[in-house]
Amino acid sequence: MLIDLTACIRNGDATGGIAASVVFANSWGMSDTHTLTHAIENRRDDLIALTQDLIRIPTLNPPGENYREICEYLNRRLLNSGFETKLVRAHGTPGDSEKYPRWNIVARREGAHAGDCIHFNSHTDVVEVGNGWTVDPFGSDLIDGKIYGRGACDMKGGLAASIIAAEAFLEVHPDFSGAIEISGTADEESGGYGGVAYLAEHGFFKNVQHVIIPEPLNKDRVCLGHRGGWWAEIETFGEIAHGSMPFLGDCAVRHMGAVLGEFEDKLFPAMAARRTDMPVVPEGARSSTMNINSIHGGQAEQSDDFTGLPAHCVPDSCRIVIDRRFLVEESLDQVRDEVTGLLEGLKSTRQKFDYSLTELNSVLPSMTDRDAPVVKTVAAQIEQVLGRPAEFVASPGTYDQKHIDRIGKLKNCIAYGPGILELAHKPDEYIGVDDMIDSAKVMAGALREILVG
Ligand SMILES: [Zn+2]
């Protein structure tokens, strides 16, 4: 009977049959695992609708649009599921203004008995749309089992999966011990200072023992942490003169060319040769890397409707922003010294070379221990749900774990969620519905392992 029912549910048979299987589950000796599995599969349509709704709220960052709207949507949903909620504005954090307030939501559902709290944290912001889309980036089209849109995999699909996991768990195990928290936070894509960092500074993780961040690291992987990052602006200086007599001035763009030459000849090969023991994916990120984020030199670009020609000037300023990602084996001082060493070298070898370097931000690498309780619990659930051992990885980019680790002082934190990492920030980003279902089963199983005695 059990086997027949499972088969009929897998085949997507009438929901009446599915509901009956839940009601009579225990009298047929069904295990809790199966009951929880069914409770999630029954919510498939709800999961799709929830994900689509979240994608349709365009929470673009920058500038940080519609944070209040998405928090209010989540507030209605989670109040309805029996959570107590708090909407928290991160006053005074970078980007916070009356026009673009940094709103966050934290929801908590207490259990019937004392115990650990598991916190699911998802960021609600998404990055710019960019070019190359073949579907509406905020249309939430469901095509062949995939929901498309900006933020579908990074990370509204993960947020939806964690909500469905919690709601299914609450239905099956209303008498649980401890507490479940779900947060939707701002600004992860720009550093998380108006989101998780603010919450951590204001004590929101004090009563939390386990944190799962449903970032899109793939449904069979536990992400233990991330590489570090160092961001800086470098400016080279010159002297303005008439463009027909460049020898009377000093071209800041050519000086920057020399900087880039040093990077190409020395820095990039040195970084590529370094390998980390961190299990970073994809493979290319197991070395140190650097992106030249932007370059601006000379006259400011005119608006598109300007029809004039440029004036003839030697540029006296050129600026780049560098985005240097480093390994747990490197220190921030080494990273900084390597770049300034090259710049100082140019100062002694290149005539009239002068520069300034402004640090914009830095983040140290973060790695959770392989034996941490949340790691072991989620890994065991991945094996149970997917029938293969979990893979342990680290993320090439930083995410909000850094704030939970350093400000919240909580080491028992991982990223685990549905979605293909390589689709994040790309055109035609999507999330697979089956992947969300599977990862919701893993999350709900982890809730059961930790919160049900
Ligand atoms: Zn993300």
From TrEMBL:
One of its GO terms (molecular function) is metal ion binding. Residues 225-344 form the Peptidase M20 dimerisation domain. It comes from the Bacteria. Its cofactor is Co(2+); Zn(2+). Transmembrane segments: none annotated. Keywords: Cobalt, Hydrolase, Metal-binding, Zinc. Gene3D superfamilies: 3.30.70.360, Zn peptidases. PANTHER family: ACETYLORNITHINE DEACETYLASE, ARGE_DAPE-RELATED DEACYLASE. Belongs to the peptidase M20A family. This is Succinyl-diaminopimelate desuccinylase. It comes from Yoonia maritima.
